[in-house]
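Explain this one:

_____
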Amino acid sequence: MGIFDKLFKKSKITTETTNTFTNTASGNNSTPNNSELVTGKQVVPTPPKYNNIITEEELVPTINYSNIQKVLSSWTNLENFTPTEFPEIEPNSAVIQPDLQNPKKKYTFRYEYNEFKALVQSSPNYNHFNQNIFQTLQDLIIHKYNLSGYFFQDIHICAGTISKRTVLDILADYYNDSSIFKEYIKKELDIGIVNYCGYGLSINELGKFNFAFNVSPLIYELANIRSMDGSDPAISLKDFNTSINKVITHIPVATFDEIEKLYTDVRSKLSDCLVDEKMNGYVYFDLTQRHASHFSYSQMRKSYITNDLSMILDYYTSNPAKEILSDRYFDIRNFKAFNPDTKKYLINDSRNLKHLVNASLYPLGKWPGIYSPALMQQAAINQMVSKTDIPAPVFSVNGPPGTGKTTLLKEIIADYIVKRAVELAKLTNPEDAFEEYVYFENTASYKQKFGDDGFYKLNDKFIDFGIIVASCNNAAVENITKELPNASALKSKMDKTSNERKKKTLTDEFDFAQNQEIYFSELAEHFFSDFNKSFESWGLISAPLGKQGNLIKFSEKLLEPFLSGQYQPETLSFSACKELFIKQYVLVRKLQKNLTEKAVTYWESADINTSTIQSGNPLKNKEFDEQRERLFYYALQLHKSFVLSENIPLKHNLSVLKRKFLSIGQERNYFNHKVSTDYFTHVFNSLFFLVPVISTTFASVEMMFDHINKPNSLGLLIVDEAGQAAPQMAAGAIFRSRKALIVGDPKQVEPVVTTDEDIQAYAMLDLEDIYRSNLESVQSYADRLNPLGAYNQLLTKKLWTGCPLNIHRRCNDPMFSISNGMSYADSMYDFSAYLDPDDANDSKILKEFIADKSYWINSTGTTTKDKHYVTEQGDFVKRMVEYSYTKNNGALTLFIISPFKDVTENIREEIRLSNILPASAEVESWLTNNIGTVHKFQGKECNEVIFLLGCTSDGLNDGAIRWVNRNIINVAVTRAKKRLYIVGDKDYWADTNYLFNEDYLWKYASHAKKGYELNYISSEEFEDAYMTSTNESTVSNSNDTDNLNVSEKEATSSNSSLPGETLTSEKELLYQELVRYLFDNITANPNDIISEMPHNQKILFDSCMVDSKTSPKIPLGKCPVCGGIVYQSVKGKLAYYECENVKSNGCTFSVAENNLFFLNELHMPLSTNLMHTLLEDGKLTILNPEMQTDAIISVQSPTMPGGHKYSWSWNCYFK
C-alpha cells in the first residue's frame, strides 16, 4: 500500500490516554555500538504519559472524505475540461521593418482563416507554386516587404470553434444539472460570446502537414459525452491524434482544399461539437531571423498529469485503500491532544514537548554550519527522520517567509545520507547492495538485437533513502537544487552573521578553501558550469532533472564523464571508509545518550510560549553538532568509495539510466515494456548513490517516471512551495513515494487555476464542497492530515496548519509586523538581523539604500496605459531606480513588484527609456529578473523592494484593487529584508480595499519596533528629501567631489559648450569638459586616455561606466537632428551611436557601428573616429575601396520613422 491513499482517509479517533510519542527508528534510540550497527538492533525509550483531561469546544480538521476513485475522476475531468483559447497577439503591422540592432526580434501575424485564404490566393504565383500555401506565402513576404533575411518556420492553423454556451449546455445535460448553465446565460449578455479552439495543425517549409495534429482535450471529452450509447469506450485522445496524423502526413501538399476536407472529417468524428459546418479559425506565423526559436500556436493545451491520474485510478480500482488510523491531533502552541469523539483535550504541559525534541530522535547527520535549528524546526526534523507513533507518512511543515524551510530540508537531507551510509557500512562488499541480474528479455531474438542486456536489482532497503524535490514552481526547484551544492552559501553559513562575526567553522572537513575535494567536487563544478559559469560547487549533492533538456545535459555532462572515468577523485578503500564512518557513528551515539540525560532539567522550568525558548534549541551542544557534521562528512566519503569501487552493478545500472534519459521523447524500442517497471525502479534508485538529491517540476514527473507505475517505488518526496500547487499536480509523485514531506505556506501565493470557473464547477460537481475550492493545495491537503500542528486565528476563522515554523530571520520591521499580523495571527517571533549604523560593514550597506526608512510614497495620477499602469507612478519609480543606480555606481539589486502584470511590463519599458541607465546586458538582465508580479518572486529576497500598486482613482479599477488579497500583500512585503517602498494612491486603495486601511495594514505596521515604522510621505516630498543632488547623504561620489581642488571644481561647472549646443540640465554641464578632453585625444590609445585623464574628468568618466565588464557611455558630438548629445554605448555586444533624446523626446538618430551602408558599400565599420568627424564637420571624406576615389558622405534625416533598410539615410557622392 502506498502513501497516496492517506490523503483521502478520515482520521479514526480513540479515547485512550496512551503514549504520546514512541520511537522505533533504527539506530536513533539508545547508546550505539558497533554490534548494534551491524545487527540492526533497536532499542525503544520509555514513552511519556498524558496529564489531566479537560473539556474544551474547538473545531478540528475532520472531514467527510470522498473515496479515491471519485476524486481522481473529478481531477481527470478538471484537467481535460480546461479549454484552449485562440492565441491573442498584437494587430498586424501595415509595414514590417526589420530591426537591425535587434536581429532576434520576432514579427507575428494573425489572420482570420478566410482572410488568409484570400491573401494567399490573390498572389499571381499561387498556381505557379501548385497551390502550395507555404511557398506562396514565403514569396509574398519576401517580395512585398523586401525581407529576404527573414523567414517563417511553420504556418499554424487553429481550426474550428465551440462556444462556452455550447460547452456548458453539453455538460448540463450530462450531469443533469442546468443551474450553472442558466447562470452563465445571464452573464453572457454582459461579457459577450466566448469561443474556444477545436484543434490545431501546422504546415512546414516543404508545404506539407507536420505530424502535429492535436485536438483540444475539452472538445474530445465533449465529443465522447455526446456519442455515449453504451458501446465500448472511445479510443484515447493520444490515439485519436495519432490516427489523424498518420493520414495527413501522407498528403503531398497541404492545400486549402485539403485543410477544408480535413475539417469536415474531424468535425464528423467529434460528433459535430464544432459549431460551424465550414472551416473557420485563425492562421498564425512568426517572421524571424534564421535559427530563431518560435512558438507553436497550434499546439493545443496539454495536461502533464492525466496519464498519472489514470494510472493511480486503475491501481486503486484493483487495490482498495486501507484505513489509516490517526488517534489524536496535537496543538503545538497550546500542547493539547484533542479527541474529536468526546470533544475533549488531553492537556500536556510544556515539558511534554521534550518527547519530540529529544536527543534520541535527533538526526545523526548535521548539515555544516554554526547554527542549530530553532525549536519547531527541530521538532519537524525529528518527526521526519524518526519513527514515532504519530502516523505521518505524509507530513506537512508550514514555513512562513524567512522561517528557515531550506535549513530544515538540509538537516533532513544530511540525515538521510547518514542513514544510507549506516546500511552501506553493513555490507562486506559494495556489490552486495545489489541482487540478481535480470535480462530485459531472455530470448534469442532479443539478445541478437541488443546483446545480453539487463539490469541489477537493488536491495529494497536502499530505496528508502532516495530524495526527490518537486514543485510546480520552476524557480523553487532551481533554487533548492543550486543552494545545496553552492560553496558560497556553505561558506556564509559557516562563517559569520551580523551578531556572531568572529565565530569560526565547526569542522575543517567542510572548509572548501582547504578541502577542494569533498564529494565529487570537480565533477559537480563541471556539471553546474553549464547552468552558471561562475557557480562554485562543494560537492555533487544534488542535480536538476525533470525536463528533457536537463535529462540530456545530465547524461552528457555528468553520467558520461563519470562512467568514462574522466573524473576519478582520490578516495580511501571501501573498507577504510567504512571503518572511519563506524568509529564516528559510535562517538555520535554516545554523545546523543549524554545529551538525553542532561536535558531533563531544561524542561522542568521551560515556558514554551516565549521567544527565548522558541528561538533556541534545548539540546544545542557544540561538540554534538561538530561530531554530527563529521559523521555527515564520513558518510559522504563512504558513498564516494562505494561509487568508485569496482562496483559493476552500479555502473551498469547507471549506463542503462543514461540510455533511458537520452531516449526520452524518441521511440522506446530499446526497452521492453513488460519489464519496464521493474527495470526503471531499480535503475533510477541506483542514481541516488551518486547524486543523493534530484529535483523536478510536477510537469515533468509523468514523463520522467513513465516506467514506474507502482506505489512505494521511490524514497522520500519533498514538495517545495506546496501552497502554490493544486492537489492533483502532486498525485503522481506522491503515489510513487514511500514518504512525503510537504513544505509550503498557504498564506502566500495560491494555486493558479486555468480552468474556466463555470466549467470547473461541472467537473467537480460530484465532490464535497471542500474539494471544489480553488484555494485547495497540496499544502492544505497535507495539513488536514497532519496531527501535529496549530491553529491560526484569522478574523472569525480558525485555520489548522501542520507543524508551523515561527522564528522569522529575514525581514526587519515594518515588513515583519505587517506580515505577522495580517497573515499569521502574530504567531511569529522576529529574529531578523538589524543593521547597526555604528558598525563599519553595516554602515556601508545602509548608505546603499534609497532612503533611511520604509515608506508608503503617495503618488496619484490620472494618466493610464493598459488597464492598471499609472504613468505618473511609473515616472516616479523610474527616477527612484535611476537614483539608486547612480548612487551605487552602476549596481542594481532592488526588486520592483506589482499585483498586476501590465504594470510590470510598462514599468520595465519605462525604465528602458532612461537616459541614465545604459542599454547594457547587465541592465537588461536586471529588468528581466528583478521586475515582476508576486508569483515570480515567491522564495526570493532583496534588501530593498518597491511595491508598485498602480490603478487610478476613477473607479475603473475598483474590482482589480479588491482582488488584491492578504496573500499577495504578504508575499510582496516579505521579499524586502531592510526597506519597503509602497508606491500608490493611499486614500484610494484604503477606501477600496479594507486590507489597506487604518484597521489592517497600517495597524499591523504600527506594531513595528520604534524607528522602523511604515512612514507616509508624498512622492514630491520623498524626492526632495532623498533624491536631489543637494542632499549630501545621497549624492553619488560625494567624497570624491569634495576632494577636488578649487580650480577643478570650477572646471567641472564650466558653462562652455559644444558649437551650437543648448544645455538643458546640470548633467550636460558636467559632461562638457569630459567631452572636450575625449575629442582632443580621440586618436590616442584608449588606455592612455583614461590613465592620463585629470582627476575631475576621471570621476565623470567613471560615472559613465556600467561596471568593469562593460564599455563606457562616451559623448561624441552634436546630434544632426535635434541638437542633443550623441553618445557611443553598448547594447548587448553591439556598439552603437545614439542621441540622448531618442528615448525621451522622440529623436530618431541611432546608428550602429556595423551600419549596413558602411559594411556593404564601404566595406568598413562606422568607427568612433569616423562618427566623431561626421558629427563635427557635417561630412566625411574617405577612400572608396572599389573606385579608388574619395567618397564624401553627409548625414540627412530619415525619410520615414525608423529609417529605411540601412537604418539611416546617407548622402554620398564620389569624386
Notes: The chain has a mean pLDDT of 77. The chain is about 40% helix and 15% strand. The first strand starts at residue 53 and ends at 55.
